[in-house]
Amino acid sequence: MAKLFLVTALAVSVVGLLVAGDAMAATAKQIDKDVSASLKLFEEVRGSSGLIKRARGILVFPKVFKAGIGIGGEYGEGALVVRGKTAGYYNTAAASFGLQLGAQKKTIIIAFMDQNALDKFRASAGWKVGVDASVAVIAVGAGGEISTADINQPIVAFIFDQKGLMYNLTLEGSKITKMNK
Length: 181
Known about the structure:
By secondary structure, this protein is α+β, with helices and mostly antiparallel strands. It has one domain. It has helices at residues 2-20, 28-43, 48-54, 115-123, and strands at 57-82, 85-112, 126-128, 136-139, 155-164, 175-179.
């Protein structure tokens, strides 16, 4: 039992170092720069500009790092953009258990299409995907296109720019927390 605990603690420590390393050191200025670059990249996807214009707020996590060795974790920092201006800084974190091995980096954009959904998010101290709100996740690949007519959910998320050896298109269980930057 003690051996299992030691192995688990070691795995969690390794995952924590892999996932959080570079991301935790970001300043507000660096996050704003990365958010802007991510939005420019996202605008290259056909149909995204209409979605961005319709959204009441857009939460952008430019660099979300995920790593796992049986036990996994992910972490990223980003900003909420409302009417073209930064309205707050947030982090996202999640843990997972099961068959997994590898690491990846991805960009997550969460569009609040409904004012009520945005207001609830901003009023919360901590927001958990799948518990506090349902989020429709849409994968965006190279040369992809978004049909904004098909998007009728209050909150829509896009995961793109995936790099690494792990593949995961879910946000279920991700905890999003406001940061003081």
